[in-house]
Amino acid sequence: MKMSQGMSRRSFLTLTGATAAVAGLGLAGCGGNGGDEGSAPAGGTEGGGVMTIGSAYAPSSYDPANCSSAFCLSANMNVVEGLYNIDFTDYSVISGLAAGEPAKIDDNTYEVTLREGAKFSDGTDVTADDVVASFERANAEGGLYVSFLTMFDGIEKKDDTTVTVKCNIANFGLLKERLAIVRITPAGLSADDAAAKPVGSGPWMYDEMSDTYVVLKPNENYNGEFPATDSELRIDVLTDTTARTTAQEEGTTLITESVPPESIDQLEAAGVSIDQVNGFGTRFIMFNVKKAPWDNVKARQAIMYALDTEKMVANAFSGLASIPTCYLPDSFTNYHEASVTYTYDADKAKGLLDEAGVTPGSIVLRTTDNAQVVSMGTQAQQDLQALGFTVDLVSDQSPATYAAIDQADDSWDILIAPGDPSCFGGDTDLLLNWWFGDNIWMQTRCAWNTSEEWKTLNGLMSEALAADEAGQQEAWNQCFDILAENVVLYPVLQVVTPTGVWRENPNPEGVAVSSDFKGIGTTGVQVVGVSTVTA
């Protein structure tokens, strides 16, 4: 299976060019953004400045072997390399720690040689032992990435600078994309240390760490293609949309992610460029299927019809979102309209509740503190109250929200949250596996993995992974139908990602970002290979 079967790379970008196949976060050493010659200050000095970024998310665990935090993944993008890295501006794959292409030994076996002289930021050599240990950590039972790595029988050391990769799918077409999931850290780095302050071989290294910001310094031991040219990279936690917009408008940040749609005109009037990129990014709903009435598919479908998504698009996103007709957005290569689509229909919602024998009672609707999601939650609260439910709306930061859900104490009913697995890569199997593989989402958070529907779904996913292009599409179409019909976890809206950057114009202090910077269609900001430009 080639990448082009999962998406059309160059047609993936921008609102007008539409992102194709996508999707919760960027990865290490992704390479330069590429791009056209820009118009940053003529004759300006490139590099030597402080690159400042405003993040819409808060940090939790940085552990590259088990990380799902949007903030931490975006920061790790600059610090921790894989054998191969993904350029998230177009989802192309470039070498990271690998010296070149994998050498094919037979249909199921490949060898990868490490970049000569590669060192971690602590000065130690990167060796095959580090690669093997990193794979084992990422593939450990219960890990978030395990379902992405099922095609690997193992990675073994051949010699100090070469690893042997064994696959259980012959001529696996996404080898480099899936190797990019595994971030390479020193074999001796403990899980606690990796979670607090990872050590990597990328162009930057962590310096100051806090709950409200991180500061990165150049890694003097980096010998790859994209060395850091600025003196410092600072990422500030600016979850409040007003604070994030103000910081960008005033020039305190050079780049800001997740520009509130209602603030786009304001920032453009100030001179900020806005990159609007269609991606896999979703605002999804998840039901606690372990408890009634959410163990009844008709009750779940009733909620989907009860949500006034058109109001959500208008009020929370100023039109920069769409109502799904499939698990994938309709601009994606593998899109196929699902057997069931959901638009607002209060009468149909009430009828489905009656069919399910549900008398509306008190429920807990949780959301993360993402401003758009909070707005969606408020609308959903009103919509569900119109059905007769008493709705306790609880909004909190992502770590606290998932900590509450992971207690598995049935203290919640419905979750609405942002999610975007395209931060790991863009093929359709990966996008399905993030939520619906045999992992924490299906084992405990949504707990759907004992159902016959889930078993059928995963059988089809496995079938598609080893099939030809036509067979893949047929199997994926069936997957899309199963997800739409069961709606245990499903997109409520699919969104455009706007990123603000002082690029064509400098900020009030005369500093801009080099013209090769591009916003990406997933969470985070990619700045490897990008620099400040001072007039």
From TrEMBL:
Molecular functions (GO terms): peptide transmembrane transporter activity
Domain Solute-binding protein family intervals: 95-441
Topology of the protein relative to the lipid bilayer: Lipid-anchor
Segments traversing the membrane: none
Annotated compartments: Cell membrane
Keywords assigned by UniProt, alphabetized: Signal, Transport
Primary subcellular site in the record, as a coarse category: membrane
Biological processes annotated in GO: peptide transport
UniProt signal peptide: 1-28
GO CC terms, sorted: ATP-binding cassette (ABC) transporter complex; periplasmic space
Pfam families given in the database record: SBP_bac_5
InterPro entries hit by this protein: Peptide/Ni-bd, SBP_5, SBP_5_CS, SBP_5_dom, TAT_signal, TAT_signal_bac_arc
Similarity comment text for this entry: Belongs to the bacterial solute-binding protein 5 family.
Protein name: ABC transporter substrate-binding protein
The species this protein was found in: Collinsella intestinalis
